[in-house]
Amino acid sequence: MHVEGDLDLDQTLYTEEQIVTRLKEMETQIQTDYEGKYLLLVGVLKGAVMVMADLARSLDRHVEMDWMAVSSYGSGTQSSGVVRILKDLDTDLNDRHVLIVEDIIDTGLTLSWLITNLRSRGPASVEIATLLRKPEAQRMDVEVKYVGFDIPNAFVVGYGLDYNERYRNLRCIGTLSPHVYS
Ligand code: 5GP
After folding, report:
1. Looking at residue 177, what DSSP letter applies?
2. Contact 41, 101 (CB under 8 A)
3. How far away, in angstroms, is 105 Cα from ligand 1 center?
4. Taking 70 as the threshold, does the pLDDT of residue 81 lie above it?
5. Does residue 109 have a pLDDT over 80?
6. Is the bond leading into 37 cis (omega within 30 degrees of zero)?
7. In angstroms, what is the span from residue 104 Cα to ligand 1's centroid?
8. Helix 16-33 and helix 49-58, axial crossing angle in degrees, nearest 10
9. Entry pTM
C-alpha cells in the first residue's frame, strides 16, 4: 500500500483544473436561475464536501448551507439500495428554495429517495446539482438540473469520493488500479 493515494490511481478522469472550470460554468447557470431568491444548498455527506466547498465559494451571492448524511453504500462498490438517514438537516425547509448538491449519481436510488423526503417538508422548490452522473442515472425519472460531467460506468474516487474511506482528499477524480481491490 502506498501512503500517497494518487499512486493507486489507474487513470485520471478529471484534473482539479477541469473540475473547477466546470463548477464555475454550473455556478453561472445557478446564479441566473436563482436571482432574487434565497438559496439553501443541501450537501450530502461525505462525498459532496469538496463539490459544496468549491461551488458555494464560486457563487457571488448569499447562500446558506446545510448537510445530510444518508447511507446508501457499504464498504464495497455496489449500491445497496438501502437508504437510511444518519444525520438530518438542521434547517426548516418550509418555503425554501433548495438545491441538493451531490458528488455522484449512479443508480439514482439515493437521490429519488432524498427528493421525495425533502419535497414532503414543504419547500418552495427542490433541484439537484451533481458533479458526476453515470449512465443508469440518465434513465431516471427525476430531472437533474445541473450536471457537471456524464461519466462511463466505472467506480471513481477522489475529490470527495472514497473507496473504504480513502482517496476523498485527492484533488483529481480517477479510477483505481486493480491491485487496490485485491
Ligand atoms: P446511487 O444511489 O445513485 O446508486 O448512489 C449514490 C451514492 O453512491 C453516491 O453518493 C456515492 O456515495 C456512491 N457512489 C456511486 N458511484 C460511486 C463511484 O463511482 N465512486 C464512489 N466513490 N462512490 C460512488
Report:
1. P
2. yes
3. 6
4. no
5. yes
6. no
7. 6
8. 60
9. 0.91
Active-site annotation holds for 106:
yes
Beta bridge partners of 144: none
Q: How open is the CA angle 59-87-167, to the nearest 5 degrees?
A: 65
Q: Parallel, antiparallel, or unpaired for β 173-176 and 64-73?
A: unpaired
How does pLDDT run across 58-68, given as a tens digit for each residue?
999 999 999 99
- Active-site residue among 8, 95, 106, 141? 106
pLDDT at 78 over 60: no
pLDDT in tens, 8-58: 999 999 999 999 999 999 999 999 999 999 999 999 999 999 999 999 999
Ligand 1 centroid to Cα of residue 37, in Å, is 30
Integer-rounded Cα Rg, in Å, for the chain is 16
